[in-house]
Design brief:
The chain is of the alpha+beta class and 155 residues long. The protein contains 5 helices and 4 strands, in the order αααββααββ. It has a 4-stranded antiparallel beta sheet with strand order 1-2-4-3, with helices on one face.
Length: 155
């Protein structure tokens, strides 16, 4: 049941982007259409991340970051399989083993749009560069089997 729910939500969210890309491809070609729609996908995904990534006022508040993130993870558990893979004073790392949005894009033949969804994480990281460091070595949107979101204290 959880997988069906995830698939439905994934398809519902990405379908407008797939339709827009397909339509614009007739006029601009697929690569340009992906670029145009991809930028909007990144903006849309970034808006949803306010419900994922907690706000802290400054780098000194990193101690509260993991606890705030864990509370927000509960909101996303119906869509994602998320586990905390490392937690220390300086590092908070998540292992996300599925993404209904990238998976739907890939199944719909729009895998080139998937990295644009993932780019929103980096946008949020740039916006918070004075508060924490973000690292990710694996991401579902570029073909990996999981995403590793790592948040690191600035010293």
């Amino acid at each position: 049941m959880k997988k069906i729910f995830r698939n439905i939500i994934g398809y519902m969210v990405v379908s407008p982007f797939v339709v827009a890309t397909t339509f614009l491809s007739f006029f601009f070609g697929q690569e340009k259409a992906i670029e145009i729609v991809g930028k909007r996908l990144t903006k849309s995904a970034k808006r949803s991340l306010k419900f994922w990534v907690p706000k802290i006022d400054n780098a000194k508040d990193f101690d509260s970051f993991p606890a705030k993130m864990k509370k927000k993870i509960r909101l996303w558990e119906p869509l994602y399989d998320i586990e905390v893979s490392k937690e220390s004073n300086d590092v908070f790392k998540l292992h996300v083993s599925n993404c209904p949005f990238c998976e739907a894009l890939n199944r719909l033949g729009m895998s080139k749009l998937s990295p644009y969804a993932c780019e929103a994480d980096w946008d949020i990281a740039r916006d918070n560069a004075d508060k924490w460091i973000f690292e990710r070595n694996c991401q579902i949107g570029t073909g990996d089997s999981y995403c590793d979101h790592t948040y690191i204290r600035i010293k």
